[in-house]
């Protein structure tokens, strides 16, 4: 009788492509190396937590308690090993005070959290929410988690980013999707509406795109502006040709949009983490991201 391989029956990690992309971008973009090192350490935690959640099958209403005991301590250890000291110290304090469950429950309910608590909650709950898949919504029942076209139809979470899929016509971008900041699922959304406030007026919405790589980093401007500067001898190819800042003047919010037709190798969640110069450009213009990403940018 043939014997099964040791890993037979074990589902493949949902983050295999994320790991490969993070390793590539960490080498390509030194300015994002620290952020991506923390992310890579979290992937180990998430893979273990995903397996544990699939095995334990925690009740959705008890997810915060389960994650506080099962995944949060490992998140704290990962922060201590790879994260900046302020983050590691804050995570240690939460662990030492026995307060891990509180921020996790608040994140599931859509509550406001301090940056370190938000990081701990997101990092601790991401794997079990992915494991719960369609049942994740039962864990997110707070008044601040309404369902709607600008909110995740699964869990009511806010959008983290948008991305456009491959299109058959190379001159046309694919349909737009929003990716949930909480459970990671995505849903279709109009390309002509602000994902934060629903504004549809073109005069109130601006898209910024990188025009070239300059001596001091990416040079960003309104998408569609003259590209004369890009032809200058000192100009280089854009660092993020597949990323854009989708901004709204009505609510002064933005998110990053990932065009997979321009870079099919991109993994939206990872590429958004690495795009620190674009976030800095948006902040300089008084814009706030609809949802800060896992690392607070």
Query: CATH class of the largest domain, please?
Result: Alpha Beta
| Full CATH superfamily name of the largest domain | FdhE-like domain
Task: Estimate nothing, just give the exact number of structural domains.
Answer: 2
State the separation between the terminal residues, measured CA to CA.
54 Å
Order of helices and strands: HHHHHHHEEEEEEEHHE
Class computed from helices, strands and strand pairing: alpha+beta
- Number of E-type strands: 8
- Tell me the number of helical segments per DSSP (H or I, 4 or more residues long): 9
Radius of gyration: 20 Å
Q: What's the overall geometry?
A: globular
- Please bin the fraction of helical residues: 25-40%
General description of the model:
It is a single chain. This protein has 297 residues and is of the alpha+beta class. The protein folds into two domains: 16-139, no CATH class; 159-289, Alpha-Beta Complex (FdhE-like fold), CATH 3.90.1670. The chain is built from nine helices and eight strands. Strands 1, 2, 3, 4, 5, 6, 7 and 8 form an eight-stranded mixed β-sheet that branches. Helix 2 packs antiparallel against helix 4 (72-82).
């Amino acid at each position: 009788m043939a014997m099964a391989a040791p890993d037979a029956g074990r589902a493949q990690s949902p983050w295999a492509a994320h790991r490969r992309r993070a390793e590539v971008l960490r080498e390509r973009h030194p300015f994002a190396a620290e952020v991506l090192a923390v992310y890579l350490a979290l992937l180990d935690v998430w893979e273990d937590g995903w397996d544990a959640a699939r095995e334990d099958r925690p009740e959705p209403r008890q997810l915060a308690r389960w994650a506080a005991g099962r995944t949060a301590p490992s998140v704290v250890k990962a922060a201590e090993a790879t994260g900046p000291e302020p983050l590691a110290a804050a995570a240690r304090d939460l662990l030492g005070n026995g307060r891990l469950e509180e921020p996790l429950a608040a994140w599931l309910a859509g509550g406001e959290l301090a940056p370190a608590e938000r990081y701990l909650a997101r990092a601790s709950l991401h794997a079990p929410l992915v494991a719960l898949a369609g049942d994740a919504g039962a864990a997110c029942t707070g008044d601040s988690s309404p369902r709607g076209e600008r909110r995740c139809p699964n869990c009511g979470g806010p959008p983290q980013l948008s991305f456009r899929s491959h299109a058959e016509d190379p001159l046309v971008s694919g349909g737009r999707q929003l990716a949930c900041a909480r459970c990671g699922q995505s849903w279709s959304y109009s390309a002509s509406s602000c994902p934060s406030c629903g504004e549809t007026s073109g005069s109130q919405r601006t898209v910024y795109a990188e025009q070239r790589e300059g001596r001091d980093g990416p040079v960003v401007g309104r998408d569609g502006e003259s590209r004369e500067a890009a032809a200058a001898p000192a100009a280089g190819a854009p660092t993020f040709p597949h990323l854009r800042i989708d901004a709204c003047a009505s609510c002064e919010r933005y998110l990053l949009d990932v065009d997979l037709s321009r870079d099919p190798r991109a993994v939206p969640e990872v590429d958004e983490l690495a795009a620190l110069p674009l976030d800095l450009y948006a902040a300089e213009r008084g814009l706030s991201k609809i949802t800060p990403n896992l690392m607070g940018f």
